[in-house]
Write a structure and sequence with these properties.
Length: 417
């Protein structure tokens, strides 16, 4: 009998001969990667030690195509970085736009950006989970701001909730209202531009504090908000049943809540209303697999469909579905791939819907959905270590894929190549 250690050594030598010493085989990417010829550019967001965007300050949180033809992006501080920035790209180069932390100290993350009236950028800020988990937290709170790319004017809308960050926003440009959700408390709020009036609609999701691999986060806080043409706001949350509460209508403190362990309920808030209501729509959920009480299912990404509905991607299971607000109808298109979290959506120049799937801090896959054929194609990942956080189409219809690493890259994908 061959000794075990010699058997292992023999297999190791065979592996090297087959995979490592074969001059005719070159693996620049893992099998499943996007074809190299389809990536026309690989742009670095950070500028190195001299800045203005240093290492640890370039993790991209969002991308927006504005009317001036530039795609604007936002960043957050990671791996010790304590600054956040705005930048822009035309898919040929990356230009620094604004060091936001120098204007607003304590703000180390631009969590979301949206297009406001007059083609201005409306943004929200937050801090790190370590700060929120500190009993001696002295964080002032997340700010809302606007930035005019043409005039370079920055306007501070102020702090929304002391000690709380802002997780996501959307803008009703017709009424001049910004909606958002605080983090980690999970309160829905509105801010009226001009008057500065803030309305707190209360808790829409009772968050759970989770410690995973030494990292603390709060699960369940809505990741995205969206509006229909009438200005009605929509979001997904749980219906949470609290111990000792009747019918899940109040939590332990007696506060009204619209959260439960039955995830994926879509709620709406009509203009002028004080209380969100359940639409009756439930997002697709893969059942029978998880008994974890923290099992989270919600909407991770939304984009307007061309027939009046909204394409949506789910958090946990990675389902693609269409939601029609007028009838509160959900049409399930199925799981786009074997993983979960369809975290970003964009239309390409070919009118196909491009989807970004994968866990927030792991390999991310680019996926293509053809609305005419109803077919889904998994394209692959840009590189085997890429943690892409968001995608966006540029003015030419090319898909930009932005990374959320310490040194982040933007890959420019062209399907025609």
């Amino acid at each position: 009998m061959i000794p075990q250690h010699k058997n292992i050594a023999a297999w190791s030598i065979l592996f090297l001969l087959v995979f490592g010493l074969n001059p005719g085989t070159v693996y620049s990417q893992r099998v499943g990667g996007i074809p190299e010829q389809s990536i026309s550019r690989r742009l670095l967001v950070s500028n190195g030690p001299s800045g203005p965007i240093k290492g640890g300050e370039s993790a991209v949180t969002d991308l927006l195509l504005l009317e001036d033809g530039w795609v604007y992006g936002s960043t957050k501080g990671t791996w010790g970085g304590v600054k956040c920035h705005l930048f822009r790209t035309d898919s040929e180069q990356v230009e620094h736009v604004l060091d936001l932390t120098s204007k607003f100290p304590q703000q180390i993350a631009i969590t979301d950006i949206a297009i406001g009236k007059g083609n201005v950028i409306i943004g929200s800020t937050s801090s790190s989970n370590d700060v929120f988990d500190d009993s001696g937290n002295t964080y002032e709170g997340g700010r809302l701001f606007s930035f005019n790319p043409a005039s370079r004017q920055l306007d501070d809308y102020g702090i929304i909730a002391p000690g709380q960050g802002i997780n996501c926003i959307t803008v009703d440009t017709a009424r001049g209202i910004v909606y958002g959700v605080t983090y980690p408390a999970g309160h829905l709020f509105s801010y009226t531009i001009g008057t500065g009036n803030i309305t707190d609609f209360g808790e829409v999701m009772t968050p759970w504090r989770v410690k995973d691999f030494g990292q603390v986060s709060w699960r369940g806080v809505p990741k995205v908000l969206f509006l229909d043409d009438a200005g009605t706001l929509y979001y997904a949350t749980y219906l949470r049943e609290n111990k000792g509460a009747e019918n899940g209508t109040a939590n332990e403190t007696g506060q009204q809540t619209r959260s439960t362990l039955k995830g994926g309920r879509i709620y709406r808030l009509t203009p002028g209303s004080d209380t969100p209501v359940f639409t009756g729509a439930v997002i697709p959920t893969q059942t029978g697999m998880d008994s974890d009480p923290l099992y989270e299912n919600g909407i991770a990404s939304v984009i307007r469909a061309k027939d009046g509905g909204f394409w949506c991607g789910t958090i946990n299971d990675g389902f693609l579905f269409k939601f029609y607000p007028s009838t509160s109808t959900v049409v399930n298109k199925g799981k786009a791939f074997q993983y979960w979290n369809l975290k970003s959506l964009a239309y390409g120049g070919d009118d196909n819907l491009y989807m970004l799937g994968g866990r927030d801090e792991d390999n991310s896959w680019l996926i293509n959905y053809n609305p005419m054929m109803g077919s889904i194609n998994t394209i692959g990942w840009p590189e085997n270590t890429a943690q892409v956080g968001v995608i966006c189409a540029d003015k030419a219809g090319r898909i930009l894929m932005a990374e959320n690493q310490r040194h982040s890259f933007i890959w420019v994908y062209e399907d025609s190549k």
